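Need tokens for this chain, all 388 residues.
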Amino acid sequence: MMEQYSSLGLLQTLVGFDTVSQHSNLALIHFVRDYLAQYGIASQLVCNEEGSKANLYATIGPTDRGGVMLAGHTDVVPVTGQNWSSDPFCLDVRDGRAYGRGSADMKGFIAAVLAAVPAFAAAKLHTPLHIALTYDEEIGCIGVRRLLDVLGGLPVLPQMAIVGEPTLMRLVAAHKGKVAYQVKLRGKEGHSSNPAAGVNAVEYAAELITFIRELARERAELGPFDPLYEVPYTTLHVGKMHGGTALNIIPAASEFEFEIRHLPEDDPQPLLNAIFNYARGQLLPAMRAVDPAAGIEFVERSSYPGLLTAPDAAVVRFVQSLLGDERAPAKIAFGTEAGLFSQRVGIPAVVLGPGSIDQAHKPDEWLALDQLSACDTLLATLLQRLGQ
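Here are the structure tokens for all 388 residues:
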């Protein structure tokens, strides 16, 4: 007789895998593959080019119809420089909380899904359950794109998707999109006693950053607005900057990174065009008047679309019925893979999972045990529905 795992026991196992994005997730993926195989469930692995990371896709029940997909990412953010009171990769349960990296974001959801697998496997499902686990979500929703290429070629797609990011088990049907760029400026070095003889890459970066800040102020003042978001407008933000070597040397190089987190209805391209045009039309001519070799380079680092699932969509009504909660779905500022499932392959998606985003990415990240239990209950209700 096979051992029955609890969601908390599985969470302990999953947290024990160090799946920080710069590391491989294969140990975790192989554990899940072998776990599913115990119940006669086959898994398809979709690897990155190097073969060091993998997505996993599995189906329980009939394969000739759509069904419900439960999706989550396996990677977690680093713990470097954070002051933890316990080992971040060893689950510590105390005071009704489970502490560990990824406990809330989002191994708690994955653990609950895996704990429900034996019951789903034993049932005679009339509607299939699909499980999708991905890599490199935390660094730009990278891994899921390879999985979507495979899903797009399947004869039958899932009918709907639930992405288990931490929402305190509140149904979410919309979130902002994001685009992030690195900007590299090339100037001309010289002695600081004659600034006009050089091209100060730091100062030109500062001018461009100031322009981005003005665009951010315009969005905050003029919108468009959606009051259902905590920050009800599109935001622009500069998060990193480097440049210069010494105070008495004109900086020959600088770089910075900025992002746009946009309402799903607010196309970020006009904002990007304004930034590109200011750099190339206003700053670059002045730089090249001193040194024709001066330059400004924009490199896209990551992007993902927003999510905008209609409040009366079938997936929303279905999940509301599982929850027994008819409230209108919420909207969140942080991004997920849900928008990609929806826009890339046409799988209507919502976001719903245990835990709070307020605990994510922080030292002593934790998941409340009652949230894990609530997710267990949701999946038990889902089993009843798919097995009817």
